[in-house]
Amino acid sequence: MTRDLIHDPHGGMPRLLEIMRRLRDPETGCPWDLEQDFASIAPYTIEEAYEVADAIERQAWDELKGELGDLLFQSVFHAQMAAERGLFTFDQVADTMSDKMVARHPHVFGEESRDKSADQQTADWEAIKAQERAAKARGGVLDDVALGLPALMRAVKLQKRAARVGFDWPSTDQVIDKIVEEAQELREATDPDHRREEFGDLLFVMANLARHMGIDPEEALRGANAKFTRRFGAVEAALSHAGKRPEESTLEEMDALWDAEKLREKAAKSS
């Protein structure tokens, strides 16, 4: 029966759970899978989440199914290790998520009216989360902002949490003034440790500016990365057409090709 399930192409979630259980079987499982623990698997979990985001960014819908499967497998892996320790099961993970979604959507699953904007729903969501944190008897306002988040994402979450209790600049202009101040402090920094500190301060305030402007800084930086990659690729292509490589060129020549590509992109957008 179990063997039939493992090889059933339509076995769905029970099949995946059984495969994970077999991989971790102490006697017949995979040696690599058996050696893993929560800490060793966590980096793969983060990597798979980014690969999901990458597939969405590229609109690679055929790849997205596989990437979502990889991410789901990470949850299954963690849940299996937890079950082995007697901590919780995958079903309990799913039930916890279901309970949370029902509790946080009283306008869908309860008696509240659905007649509210997306902004109002976001505010209500944050209020419910604040009540949940209070029920957990957390200490400070920032205590449960996860340490393992990417630094830029964590900066925004820290700032949002502080803003909810009134610790925030009232206007975007004040944030920009702070950016100018931090940039000057970075310019004046002399030793490496001081430069690193001031650079971090500048990045932190830039993240705050993004929050004030309603911009996802991670998404904005991904866009800038993609633009740089695209334009540098055009520079390489132009040089290759001339029988040259970047290392055989000069900065002035590459700058000129870069500017030409910028103009071409602007013309294409306006046409």
Description:
It is a single chain. With 271 residues, the chain is mainly α. It has three domains: 2-103, Helix Hairpins (Orthogonal Bundle); 138-215, Helix Hairpins; 219-270, no CATH class. Helices cover 74% and strands 0% of the residues. The chain has 13 helices and no strands. The longest helix is centred in the last third of the chain and has 25 residues, at 217-241.
CATH superfamily of the largest domain: MazG-like
The total of beta strands comes to 0
CATH T-level topology of the largest domain:
Helix Hairpins
CATH architecture of the largest domain: Orthogonal Bundle
Distance between the termini: 63 Å
Poorly predicted runs of 5 or more residues: none
Structural class: mainly alpha
Q: CATH first level of the largest domain: which class?
A: Mainly Alpha
As a whole number of angstroms, the C-alpha radius of gyration is 25 Å
Order of helices and strands: HHHHHHHHHHHHH
Q: What number is the mean pLDDT?
A: 91
Overall shape: it is: globular
Number of domains: 3
Main pleated-sheet profile: none
Number of helices: 13
Query: How much strand content do the residues show?
Result: under 5%
Helix content range? over 70%
Short description:
By secondary structure, the protein is mostly helical. It is 74% helix and 0% strand. The chain has three domains: 2-103, MazG-like (Helix Hairpins, Orthogonal Bundle), CATH 1.10.287.1080; 138-215, Orthogonal Bundle (Helix Hairpins); 219-270, no CATH class.
Task: Summarize the SSE layout with pairings.
Blueprint: H1 2-6, H2 12-23, H3 31-35, H4 38-57, H5 61-84, H6 90-104, H7 106-109, H8 118-135, H9 151-164, H10 172-188, H11 192-212, H12 217-241, H13 251-270
